[in-house]
């Protein structure tokens, strides 16, 4: 059967658009997924739109969400408004709300609380974060550990760990 093209019945094609309202599903795959007051365990699509909805995991090219919650997100372009995300990886990300960890090329945040924000360019209007790692930061960011602080903490931790190992090897050296 090598070299044969599959018949139309054998080809697996994705639906173009799936609209979910007031429902919950395990997983969704389509070119476009729109959800309103719905939930999904996982979403794989070119474009995803969530309104007052939640998803365990989302993998898409473009994601927009309003008053939504997402566990894990991977996309090229993200726009979250009054939403929360556990972990997000995006080329370009714009958001208001809460985030556990955000990694992106260009990250724009307004009125956000985040655990970790890492990006090439971070633009902020009132961000409160535990750690911010960025090539460039513009705006109002309140953070416990910034890029310099993270480098300093890592260097000090490395030196202290090295001293402890050196002291341990000197104290507990085997004698022959």
Write a structural description.
By secondary structure, this protein is mainly beta. It folds into two domains: 17-137, no CATH class; 146-176, no CATH class. The chain contains one helix and five strands. It has a five-stranded parallel β-sheet. The longest helix is centred in the C-terminal third of the chain and has 25 residues, at 147-171. The chain is elongated. The protein starts with 16 loop residues before the first strand and ends in a 5-residue tail after the last helix. Residues 6-11 have low confidence and may be disordered.
Brief overview, please?
By secondary structure, the protein is mainly β. Helices cover 14% and strands 69% of the residues. Strands 1-2-3-4-5 form a five-stranded parallel beta sheet.
Classify the helix fraction into a percent range: 10-25%
Order of helices and strands: EEEEEH
Largest sheet, in brief, is: 5 strands, parallel
Based on DSSP secondary structure assignment, what is the total number of beta strands? 5
Reading side by side through the largest sheet, how are the strands ordered? 1-2-3-4-5
């Amino acid at each position: 059967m090598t070299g044969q093209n599959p018949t139309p019945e054998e080809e697996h094609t994705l639906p173009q658009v799936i609209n979910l309202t007031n429902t919950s599903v395990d997983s969704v795959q389509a070119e476009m997924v729109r959800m309103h007051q719905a939930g999904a365990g996982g979403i794989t699509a070119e474009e995803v739109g969530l309104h007052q909805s939640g998803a365990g995991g989302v993998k898409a090219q473009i994601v927009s969400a309003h008053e939504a919650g997402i566990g894990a997100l991977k996309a090229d372009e993200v726009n979250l408004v009054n939403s929360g995300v556990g972990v997000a990886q995006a080329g370009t990300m714009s958001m208001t709300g809460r985030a556990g960890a955000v990694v992106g090329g260009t990250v724009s945040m307004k009125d956000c609380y985040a655990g970790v924000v890492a990006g090439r360019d971070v633009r902020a209007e009132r961000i409160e974060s535990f750690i911010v790692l960025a090539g460039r930061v513009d705006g109002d960011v309140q953070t416990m550990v910034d890029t310099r602080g993270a480098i300093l903490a890592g260097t000090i931790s490395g030196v202290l760990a090295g001293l402890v190992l050196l002291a341990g090897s000197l104290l507990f050296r085997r004698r022959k």
